[in-house]
Amino acid sequence: MNFKQILSNINAGVILISTANDSYEILYSNEWIEAYAKKSITPGTSLFEAFELSQSERAMLNRKVKSALFLNAPSFLSAEHEGYLIPITNQKITRADTFPFMQQDAAIMPYDAEKQQVALIIYDFTSLMISQRDLRDKQQELEEAIKELKKAHKNLAEKTALIDYQANFDSLTGLANRVLLQDRFERAITAAQRTQTLIGAIYIDLDFFKPINDTYGHSTGDKLLKMAGDVISLSVRKSDTVSRIGGDEFVVLLPNINDLAPVIKIAENIINKLGHPFTIGDHHLRLSASLGIATYPANGDNPSTLIKNADIAMYHAKRIGRNSYQIFEDYFAEERMAQTNLEQALRKALSDPNFIAQKGFSVVFQPKVKHLEQGAIKTVGVEALIRWAHSEHGVVSPEKFIPLAEAAGLVSKITQFVFHESCKHLKLWRVIEPDFMVSVNLSAYDFDRPNFCQELLETLKYYGLPPSAIDLEITEHNALLVKQDNYRKLNDLRNFGFKLSLDDFGTGYSSLSFLAQIPVHTLKIDKEFVYKTQYSPTDKAMLESIIKLAHSFKLDVIAEGVETIENLEQLASFGGNYFQGYFFSKPLEADAITVRLQKEKEQRF
After folding, report:
1. Residue 86: pLDDT over 60
2. Which residues form a coiled coil (predicted)?
3. Dihedral angle at the C-alpha atoms of 527, 533, 538, 540, nearest 10 degrees?
């Protein structure tokens, strides 16, 4: 066995080199040491280039090689004694990955002194090389693992923060949500018990937000909610918490107060600031709000009771006219309970297919008259009015149950019932008076039904009546609530031949441009407006202007609430030509209308 065979079989790292020139050409190397080469090793490859040795490393190696050749005896490389390279175990900068045997005690053995050939050997290199390789691999893996751990920790922290934010804050407005509000209330109550102070709760509901959302779209609605939240936040103290608890409802928590004064001041501030116009794109929108106030401990000793009672107070503010605040009173809760019971009774009644006959609903009709020459009058039509006589609640006013039906999504059933009853009686009345008409009130929510117009036409067809026999009334307030997309249905109804009236004019916020746009035939002036003209010269002048304005738009005018001869004469002098009110008749049963028409016909002939 020759020397190369011996070297290839020993458990060591071996390189056989020629030092005849400055490049130190590699003549042979075993596989163990080749794993550390930076370049592929073939016979003739420079040792310096293969392992990318630095100038100091080259100088040190060259000195040891010359010593071995001169003495013709082994020369040793010792990292510990030479100090050029430090073992990796010292955790200092090292070039171990460049030339590993220079970290360990290695031998330079003369191979052929005449040819200036030497062998570089690291004894037991196999185990040493594996150890060093593993150390580097483990160190690299550890470094990568640390990087990944830091990255994962950062992501976890971000996700935890996001989850915490979503759990405690409203995603749309950035305000506190119910969860955080509950926590803040509990902390405030604990502090109030310790300091013997009060806590205020303000429940805020935006008035008529839904029609704005429906008309201008959810994107505009969301922006308006966010802007409203910002306005409320700017209206309170830094120590207060503003929360959006759902939809268009907000709650303000006011801790550490001594009396109601700061709560009332903030409530008034909120109402005032929300009343300023909001500009979103090309739209200039106006809001109002109904607020309810409750205090700890007078109106509740826990968060849920406080919020509930503030809600009840808010509902009372909304019921008596909106755009105001109310401070909770015990009887508010009784009223709210009665209202809830009434709503449940209404739901039950309207969910019954036979509710008309069994649940106390009926329709009465109030005459509409035309003022003729020499003081004569003629009944030209009637307005259909629904009534509800409940077995427990007694006679319930439409002013109470119609809003409940609208809120519950049940008003369409009432409209259908009234329309059918009106058509049934109108068929007979038109035999007596061929041009006789019935007015039926509509809700803005009726227009949400996809087949609304078709349903009306089918009912008329069933009773053999033309659309021109029906006057469809929609209040000024409801007209403003009709979604933009549903205005097409108003035009469709007019094109089908229905008469359209704008009811309760003078009670809402419509402009003259709105009056010119809505496709109505008749303007009905609200009875409250008529009543005020008896005492207010300004209202009197406005009424006269409205009647003249309506005529300029080629609209008929019907004045409601005519109760005295003075009302009639004044309205007639302003140019009014159609009237309705108790001066002429209260609402009557259908049979009484039939008798009235027959008597008027007999008197004419």
Report:
1. no
2. 128-162
3. 90
List the domain boundaries for the chain.
3-137, 178-328, 340-596
Question: For the chain, what's the residue count?
Answer: 605
Same fold, 178-328 and 340-596: no
On the question of pLDDT at 160 being above 60, the answer is yes
Residue 342 C-beta-side C-alpha neighbours within 13 Å: 23
- CATH topology classification for 178-328: Alpha-Beta Plaits (3.30.70)
Residue 297: asked if its preceding bond is cis (omega within 30°), the reply is yes
* Structure-block tokens of residue 550: 């309506």
**Closest by Cα among 124, 123, 134 to 97:** 134
Q: How far is CA 91 from CA 86, 87, 94, 136, 137, in A?
A: 9, 8, 8, 11, 14
Q: What is the pLDDT of residues 419-450, one digit of tens each?
A: 999 999 999 999 999 999 999 999 888 888 88
Phi first, then psi: give them for residue 380, nearest 5 degrees.
-105, -10
For the chain, state the CA radius of gyration: 47
Dihedral-angle region of residue 175 (phi above 0 means left; psi in -120 to 50 means alpha; beta otherwise): beta
Tokens of 474: 């929609």
Q: Which CATH superfamily is domain 340-596 in?
A: EAL domain (3.20.20.450)
Contacts of 26 (CB under 8 A, 6+ apart): 15, 16, 17, 41, 43, 44, 45, 46, 47, 50
Burial of 542 (0-12, 13-18, 19+ CB in 10 A): middle
- Kindly report, residue by residue over 573-599, the tens digit of the pLDDT: 888 889 999 999 999 999 999 999 999
> Per residue in 253-291, pLDDT tens?
999 999 999 999 999 999 999 999 899 988 888 889 999
Task: For residue 523, give the nearest of 560, 487, 562 by alpha carbon.
Answer: 560
| CA 274-277-280 angle, 5° bins | 110
Q: What is the pLDDT of residues 459-515, one digit of tens each?
A: 999 999 999 999 999 886 666 656 566 678 888 999 999 999 988 776 655 555 566
CATH 3.30.70.260: does it fit domain 3-137?
no
What's the pLDDT at 96? 41
Percent of the chain at pLDDT above 90?
38
In SS3 terms, 445-478 reads as HHHHCCCHHHHHHHHHHHHCCCHHHEEEEEEHHH
SS3 554: coil
Helix (H, G, I), strand (E, B) or coil at 245: strand
Residues facing 13 on adjacent strands: 122
Strand 288-296, strand 556-559: pairing = unpaired
CA–CA separation, 605 and 600 (whole Å): 9
Higher pLDDT, 19 or 237: 237
The per-residue pLDDT of the chain, averaged, comes to 81
Distance of CA 369 to the CA centre of its chain: 49
Q: Residue 565: name the closest of 590, 584, 585, 548 by CA.
A: 584
One-character DSSP codes across 111-124? EETTTTEEEEEEET
User: Tens digits of per-residue pLDDT, 549-582?
Assistant: 888 888 899 999 899 888 888 888 888 889 999 9
Residues 551, 557 contacting (CB under 8 angstroms)? yes
